[in-house]
Amino acid sequence: MASQRLFEPVIDQHDTWLAINPVQGCPKNCGYCYLQDLGLTRTKPEVLVTPEETLSQLLAHRYYHRDLTLALYTCTDALATPVTRAHLTRLLDVLGASPVRNPVCLITKCAVPDDVVDCITRNRAAGLPIQVYLSYSGLGPDIERGIDHDALRATFPRLHAAGIPLIHYWRPFLPQNSTPDVIDHVMDWVTRYADATVAVGTKIKPTALQQITGLWPQLADPHLDPQAADSLWPRPAWEWLRHVPDRYAHHPIFQTNSCALAYVLHRSDRAGVLNTPTCLSANRCPTAQRDRCRHAAPRQPVHERDIDQHLARLGHPHVPYTLNAATRTLVLAEPLPLRDRHNIAQVLALTVRAPDHPAERYWPGRLAGGQPLVIDAPQ
Questions:
Q1: pTM (predicted TM-score)
Q2: pLDDT band at 208 (very low <50, low <70, confident <90, very high)
């Protein structure tokens, strides 16, 4: 753990969404958590800005765009303490009363109490599209320390009964939760209540390899290059997803958050996943959703002036690039931080390639060219 707390930006860009982090620090201590090396686990959450200030910063930020999904409190669990829950409900009310109508995601491993359910419901009725991600992986208290797994399981039927769109977040996959018994225990429950599942392998940022090898010692094998991968998968979990049992055939399972959100929001793909190997082989997408994506109106052509304007907005007005307009692929000639590249990709609906930034602290993500790495059990 870091000797001091290192806070992330209040408004930050991830590979799927715009992260909104007005409160940071989590009292939980999940062994795989990417906040560990920032000193943000096993700590009292700190309020950095008020809900009202959060809205102001969001609307003024260079990353903000009305089409982006907002992920709230990714540097804490907003349901973990009374202070964070109060901040959450106030922020949802502030967003609901504002012009913001971006899709909103709330990700949690905690029970969602009645006052938060009521807050979500009233702001959805006001036109704010809120989805809840329940992060339930089948890992035990030896790895997800501080999580009440019984309360987490009981939250699925409660949110389902309240009519709140519910995505099961099945991450990360480690050898400990990749056995048939664990997988069936999770899926037999969540498929009754969740609208879809997002299954995500283990992701490793450059500063966290030692942390993850403590949970998955095989990753220390010098013949492996785990940090070059988009995600890491134990072979049993990967094969299970390739051959999902018939009893789960009705349940959508995605490896891409953007596709799960498109499905739940009744929208088409705009992240460039359609007809890729991920779309055709990895995602178990309903026929109606595939048809929605295939028959969507063509995206507006992208022009160099759009790219020039957005690069200038991000503070990179003179970066050389080439654009293949037919494939919507932008190749930057200079390194840019991943957060900037992800923002360009999401706002302009482009695939963005660029040299690696030497000071990068984040995993590259599938949209930056990384691919899954499937790891066999040791012999």
A1: 0.94
A2: confident
